[in-house]
């Protein structure tokens, strides 16, 4: 008997291609993520001539009071927004999951609708609501909306659904048995809330707070439009790079912006790890009507929903007014983007293209990547590395990614230089920007499949790609469609990464909003923001209808599984 | 203490050579010469922990072998090494005289049924079974007839067009079996194939699988933690614990002659009684002495193992050679009652005994009743105290 | 940094993108001309030169200037067109432009072009500083109508004046430049210090203050005549005012970028840009154009504004541009809008 010494290696042609796929994926993520970020880092420690000067740039940054002030401003605004959004979203989520208020479906729909709009939309609406000619400007007691107040309100609007989604999930996963036990023990409602509900939602709350903080800190649309002369980090980056073409200082500010975002991200991941899953024996909690709780909650939700709808509605109304506030006749003239300063229908068409291409390319890439990571029984270290890389974009603000892309792709020595200014680079950047959420979604979908499919496939001597095409893909189709939708909507509404990368041919709708607002054409900007919102809403609705019908037609077996 | 299977008399099931039904034989019977599957010193490490530790095992052609052990004993790891899904760290695997140690799963020759069945929910029963066949570039008609043949084999012809979610657990299990047999593998691997089923269906399927295996003469390796399943189905049982083989043997040998206290305790119910060898070679339990065959110095601590059904009871309190006991607890198990017996003479020790329910009724048995318990010396297995695997 | 194999793969990838290109010569033109006019110029030029297609890169004067400077090592633009002469002058000094004398150059006012021969840059038309004054809002707030720059520093206007940031906006810069030229360094900065007290916001673009005034978001917008006239024509309740001390102005000018691979097309655009037809088009919105004798009055332009144009020293402005902007940022950056 001779034992084989050393680890055993498996080889076959099928495995070769899968390994090649993993290496290619690594290369792709390296080129579209790591190298640009490296270019950004290295630029931040170089002088104008490209010599290494250590942290001198950062010292210069700190010596500029105006720039230093933005750091404080950013933290203040993000902190305030986080407090407000986490608290209100918790109440809202609590009402939707733990009470019997009427019209919960409608409330949910209203609260999630800001996801379909660019963050510029609330800022523009605020101009019309609280600006000097705003319809309810008196509500601010003479304080100007241009500045921290505007930034906080605008940020609250668009980050609300993000926090709400997290809290809905955290609160939906309640174990009904705990509540029965608490009731049986004669615990008061308030005590049950404190001892059962709050601890159960703790991680959800922290996670929602961290996400809101990061989103607000790194958002650029709201402060750009409504920030007035109140500088924040995100607008500083823009000012340095676009306004003064000072890439060196832009890189420095970008890294200052990256650090808190990175810290929040790491914190969130660490907390998430401690998040105990619900035991499989848990019973879903079914709330029973209790007017003393339900009606106040209903009032709160109504108030919030009216606020959200008010902002949305104001943007729509403003886009239809001929000359605010002097001529309030309704007109579609503001939608004639080609005659607007900074806007064009080309921008809208480009955005549709970008959204479509991002949905296609992003879904394909992310899903195949997740599949390789999850289902290929080779090179575990490489798969681990790719998984980590896939999580990285979540920690990198869009603005930072955008600058990193300019520095990397616009370098004359880069053979990919030709991509600069094309739609392709916008697609690549957008896919990279939203990679993490897509990746995690695809991984979740794949992990829900029986892990033995691959073993069965191998025992039946079936190549991996055939199993993928015949079984894995059809089973993941709903997740795949969701993924495509996610990429589509985000590509339509995003502005942060692409604002540095567009060219005259590839100008985008969200960028056009910025440019029109810059030129003082706020009505045109509102009109474009409304166009984006309507498009996203329409595509979303169509998607919901079509995907249900499509799945019924193509995948009759799903009906069987429900029986 | 692992034994090599080759030390046991070669086992050849009587019906190995039965020809399968149908026009196309599923597998040509071949006379057994060398063992069909040989594991040589197989080890699997995950980091610093050892999941499978130096396992050697030979399986004859046409044999049905069960690997039995508690969860975490390494049986699943062993199975996955045989499949090539999680290659072994060290050691060699030979199948039909061929070294397959380094082959990827797809290059090995096995069919597998998992606990979850892993049926493809988006494919019909027929498509599931045809999955491996369609890959062979065979004419459609050939695939169709082969699928029909396999479905007939497992009795599911009528359900060919259904989706797995429309089938009962037992039916799904049979589809998985048919799919595993589609490529006429030389080796069938069953990974806890019955544990997801109702008790009644489980018993029924045991017989079906066994009959099918006999009919096809298919070398089969089944993983289970269910001793009853192993005992009723296997030609031979391999008991594993902590990554090592404890014992290999026929079900009778495993049950009646457990080689280690672990096997004794894991398979069936067992009384373990700490005792001491006395001057005349009897086992002394407190103030009671039991006749048994033990060769050891007086005073050696031993552990006696006795099956509850081997504790014979009588109401005759004056009987010789017995242990006077009192019924401390009664557990109704259907056909038998399990009694917990104790006595001042036994100290804190208790003895479990199985008594036919009819007998108990006849005696009007209740708590506190005094009985006489006797144990035949041949029914007592003696293990060294704190012996290996205890 | 980039091995040749990657280059090859990239080249193959790019071949795919390039396949969509067509036979027309694409001219990449950087400009600061107001967006609502660009379509008109593009259409007119392309009608006369069907083989050439203009691709605009439009942004504010400061942005385009910064972009051009940043790209100095590898210029992307073929032509710079409709950018402030101060900027072109500074760029010309860096050797950015290909000297060229377009056909018909002699018909232009000599003061409105580069003094070298052949000229590196040529002026097209002047844009002139003006105030946009919202009469409706002023009436509500009881604010008097300002008639001079000095009026703007009066305490009544505190928080009611918006002006463009000179770092990004050409209009903002010509204001600052004119004040310094009219009054000298010390008085000029003192004026701006006083004005700063009344400023509500420094905007990124030069037309935004006027649009804000038109929308009632501010009472007084420091902007330029074209934008004011345009908003008034649209029906906004504003009056366009040329301050009495004199108004700053700058020339929208063009130059051909040295090293362009599309020199012939660039020359065609240069030729077209000095033509009578082009000058007539310039005049549709601007009162002062490079070709003498064709200018007609533009509706809603402030009366007598041409007489108030200061004697502008482009060379001085170009030379001191960077220093002025540095000083300005140091003093007033806090109230500046992003960008």
TrEMBL record, chain A:
Membrane topology per record: Multi-pass membrane protein
Keywords assigned: Membrane, Transmembrane, Transmembrane helix, Transport
Coiled-coil annotated spans: none
Primary subcellular site in the record, as a coarse category: membrane
Cellular component GO terms, alphabetical: plasma membrane
A Pfam family hit: BPD_transp_1
Subcellular location: Cell membrane
GO BP: transmembrane transport
Residues that span the membrane, as ranges: 20-41, 75-97, 109-130, 145-171, 203-226, 246-267, 295-320, 352-373, 385-407, 419-438, 475-502, 522-543
Domain ABC transmembrane type-1 residues, every copy: 71-268, 348-543
Family named by the database record: Belongs to the binding-protein-dependent transport system permease family.
Descriptive protein name: Iron(III) transport system permease protein
Classification of source organism: Bacteria, Pseudomonadati, Pseudomonadota, Gammaproteobacteria, Candidatus Competibacteraceae
Automatic annotation (TrEMBL), chain B:
Claim: DNA-binding is one of the keywords in the record: no
Keyword line: ATP-binding, Cell inner membrane, Cell membrane, Membrane, Nucleotide-binding, Translocase, Transport
GO biological process: quaternary ammonium group transport
Gene Ontology CC: one annotated term: ATP-binding cassette (ABC) transporter complex
Domain of life: Bacteria
Boundaries of every ABC transporter domain copy: 37-267
Region named Disordered: 1-27
Record-level Gene Ontology MF annotations: ATP binding; ATP hydrolysis activity; transmembrane transporter activity
PROSITE patterns, alphabetized: ABC_TRANSPORTER_1, ABC_TRANSPORTER_2
Pfam families named in the record: ABC_tran, TOBE_2
Name of the protein in its database record: Iron(III) transport system ATP-binding protein
UniProtKB/TrEMBL annotation, chain C:
Signal peptide per UniProt: 1-23
InterPro entries attached to this UniProt entry: ABC_2-AEP-bd (IPR017663), Ferric-bd (IPR026045)
Pfam families: SBP_bac_6
Name of the protein in its database record: Iron(III) transport system substrate-binding protein
Keyword field contains Cell membrane: no
A GO CC term assigned to this protein in UniProt: outer membrane-bounded periplasmic space
Keyword annotations from UniProtKB, A to Z: Iron, Metal-binding, Signal
GO biological process: thiamine transport
Any one GO molecular-function label of the UniProt entry: thiamine binding
Protein's UniProt keywords contain Signal: yes
Ligand binding (Fe cation): 226
């Amino acid at each position: 008997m001779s034992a084989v010494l050393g680890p055993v290696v498996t080889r076959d042609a099928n495995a070769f291609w899968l390994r090649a796929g993993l290496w290619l994926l690594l290369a792709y993520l390296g080129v579209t993520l790591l190298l640009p970020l490296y270019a950004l880092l290295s630029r931040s420690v170089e002088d104008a001539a490209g010599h290494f000067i250590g942290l001198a740039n950062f010292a210069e940054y700190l010596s500029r009071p105006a720039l230093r002030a933005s750091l404080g401003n950013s933290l203040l605004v993000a902190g305030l927004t986080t407090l407000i959004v986490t608290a209100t979203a918790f109440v809202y989520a609590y009402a939707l999951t733990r009470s019997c208020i009427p019209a919960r479906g409608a409330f949910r729909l209203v609260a999630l609708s800001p996801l379909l709009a660019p963050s510029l939309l609330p800022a523009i609406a605020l101009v019309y609501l609280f600006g000097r000619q705003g319809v309810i400007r008196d509500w601010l007691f003479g304080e100007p909306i241009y500045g921290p107040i505007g930034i906080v309100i605008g940020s609250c609007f668009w980050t609300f659904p993000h926090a709400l989604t997290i809290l809905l999930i955290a609160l939906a996963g309640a174990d009904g048995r705990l509540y029965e036990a608490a009731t049986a023990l004669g615990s008061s409602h308030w005590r049950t809330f404190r001892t059962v509900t709050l601890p159960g939602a703790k991680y959800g709350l922290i996670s929602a707070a961290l996400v809101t903080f990061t989103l607000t800190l790194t958002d650029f649309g709201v402060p750009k439009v409504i920030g007035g002369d109140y500088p924040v980090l995100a607008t500083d980056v823009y000012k340095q790079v676009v306004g003064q073409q000072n890439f060196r200082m832009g890189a420095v500010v970008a890294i200052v912006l990256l650090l808190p975002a990175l810290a929040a991200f790491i914190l969130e991941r660490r907390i998430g790890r401690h998040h105990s899953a619900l035991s499989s024996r848990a019973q879903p909690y079914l709330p029973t009507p209790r007017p003393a709780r339900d009606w106040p909650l209903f009032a709160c939700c109504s108030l919030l929903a009216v606020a959200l709808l008010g902002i949305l509605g104001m943007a729509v109304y403003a886009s239809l007014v001929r000359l605010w506030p002097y001529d309030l006749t309704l007109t579609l003239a503001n939608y004639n983007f080609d005659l607007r300063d900074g806007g064009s229908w080309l921008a809208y068409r480009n955005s549709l293209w970008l959204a479509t291409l991002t949905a296609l390319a992003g879904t394909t890439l992310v899903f195949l990547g997740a599949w390789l990571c999850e289902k290929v029984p080779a090179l575990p270290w490489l798969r681990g590395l790719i998984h980590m890389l896939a999580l990285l974009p979540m920690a990198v603000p869009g603005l930072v990614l955008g600058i990193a892309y300019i520095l990397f792709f616009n370098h004359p020595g880069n053979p990919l230089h030709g991509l600069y200014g094309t739609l392709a680079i916008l697609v690549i950047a957008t896919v990279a920007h939203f990679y993490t959420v897509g990746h995690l979604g695809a991984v979740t979908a794949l992990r829900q499949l029986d892990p033995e499919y691959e073993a069965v496939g191998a025992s039946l001597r079936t190549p991996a790609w055939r199993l993928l095409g015949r079984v894995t893909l059809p089973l993941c189709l709903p997740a795949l469609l969701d993924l495509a939708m996610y990429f589509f909507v985000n590509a339509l509404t995003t502005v942060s990464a692409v604002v540095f990368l567009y060219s005259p041919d590839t100008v985008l709708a969200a960028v056009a909003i910025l440019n029109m607002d810059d030129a003082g054409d706020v009505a045109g900007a509102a009109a474009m923001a409304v166009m984006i919102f309507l498009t996203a809403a329409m595509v979303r609705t169509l998607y919901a209808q079509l995907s249900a019908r499509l799945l019924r037609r193509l995948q009759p077996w799903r009906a069987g599984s429900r029986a | 203490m692992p034994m090599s299977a080759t030390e046991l008399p070669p086992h050849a099931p009587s019906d190995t050579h039965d020809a399968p039904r149908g026009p196309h034989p599923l597998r040509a019977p071949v006379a057994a010469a060398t063992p069909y599957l040989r594991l040589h010193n197989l080890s699997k490490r995950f980091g610093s922990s050892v999941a499978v530790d130096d396992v050697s095992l030979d399986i004859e052609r046409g044999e049905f072998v069960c690997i039995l052990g508690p969860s975490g004993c390494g049986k699943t790891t062993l199975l996955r090494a045989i499949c090539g899904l999680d290659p072994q760290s060290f050691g060699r695997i030979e199948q039909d005289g061929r070294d397959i140690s380094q082959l990827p799963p797809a290059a090995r020759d096995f069919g597998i049924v998992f606990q979850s069945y892993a049926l493809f929910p988006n494919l019909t029963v027929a498509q599931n079974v045809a999955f491996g066949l369609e890959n062979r570039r065979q004419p459609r008609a050939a695939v169709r007839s082969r699928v029909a043949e396999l479905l007939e084999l497992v009795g599911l012809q009528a359900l060919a067009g259904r989706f797995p979610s429309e089938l009962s657990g037992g039916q799904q299990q049979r589809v998985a079996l048919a799919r595993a047999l589609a490529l006429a593998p030389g080796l069938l691997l069953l990974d806890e194939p019955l544990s997801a089923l109702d008790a009644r269906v489980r018993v029924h399927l045991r017989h079906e699988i066994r009959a099918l295996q006999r009919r096809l003469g298919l070398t089969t390796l089944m993983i289970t933690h269910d001793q009853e399943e192993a005992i009723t189905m296997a030609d031979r049982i391999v008991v594993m614990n902590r990554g090592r083989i404890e014992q290999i043997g026929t079900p009778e040998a495993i049950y009646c002659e457990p080689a280690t206290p672990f096997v004794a305790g894991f398979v069936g119910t067992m009384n373990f009684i700490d005792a001491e060898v006395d001057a005349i070679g009897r086992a002394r339990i407190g103030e009671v002495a039991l006749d048994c065959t033990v060769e050891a110095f007086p005073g050696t601590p031993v552990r006696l193992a006795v099956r509850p059904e081997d504790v014979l009871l009588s109401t005759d309190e004056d009987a010789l050679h017995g242990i006077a006991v009192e019924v401390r607890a009664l557990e109704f198990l259907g056909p038998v009652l399990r009694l917990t017996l104790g006595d001042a003479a036994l100290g804190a020790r208790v003895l479990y005994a199985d008594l036919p329910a009819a007998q108990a009724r006849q005696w009007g048995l209740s708590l506190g009743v005094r009985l006489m318990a006797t144990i035949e010396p041949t029914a007592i297995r003696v293990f060294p105290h704190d012996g290996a695997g205890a | 940094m980039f091995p040749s194999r990657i280059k090859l793969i990239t080249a193959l990838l790019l071949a795919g993108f390039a396949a969509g290109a067509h036979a027309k010569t694409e001219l990449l033109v950087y400009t600061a001309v107001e967006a609502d006019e660009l379509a008109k110029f593009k259409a007119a030029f392309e009608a006369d030169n069907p083989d050439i297609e203009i691709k605009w890169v439009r942004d504010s004067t400061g942005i385009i200037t910064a972009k051009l400077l940043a790209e100095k090592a590898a210029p992307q633009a073929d032509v710079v067109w409709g950018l402030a002469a101060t900027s072109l002058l500074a760029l010309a000094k860096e050797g950015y432009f290909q000297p060229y004398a377009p056909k018909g150059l002699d018909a232009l006012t000599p003061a409105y072009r580069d003094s070298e021969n052949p000229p590196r840059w040529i002026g097209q038309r002047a844009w002139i500083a003006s105030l946009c004054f919202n009469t409706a809002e002023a009436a509500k707030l009881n604010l008097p109508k300002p008639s001079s720059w000095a009026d703007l520093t009066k305490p009544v206007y505190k928080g009611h004046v918006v002006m463009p940031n000179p770092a990004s906006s050409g209009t903002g810069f010509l204001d600052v430049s004119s004040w310094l030229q009219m009054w000298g360094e010390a008085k000029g900065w003192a004026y701006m210090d006083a004005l700063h007290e009344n400023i509500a916001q420094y905007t990124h673009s030069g037309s935004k203050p006027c649009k804000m005034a038109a929308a009632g978001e501010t009472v007084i917008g420091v902007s330029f005549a074209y934008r004011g006239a345009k908003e008034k024509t649209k029906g906004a309740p504003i009056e366009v005012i040329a301050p009495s001390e004199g108004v700053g102005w700058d020339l929208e000018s063009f130059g051909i970028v040295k090293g362009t691979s599309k020199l012939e097309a660039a020359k065609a655009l240069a030729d077209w840009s000095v033509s009578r037809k082009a000058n007539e088009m310039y005049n549709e919105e601007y009162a002062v154009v490079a070709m003498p004798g064709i200018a007609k009055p533009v509706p809603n332009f402030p009366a007598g504004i041409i007489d108030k144009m200061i004697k502008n020293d482009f060379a001085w402005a170009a030379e001191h541009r960077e220093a002025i902007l540095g000083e300005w940022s140091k003093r007033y950056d806090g109230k500046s809008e992003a960008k």
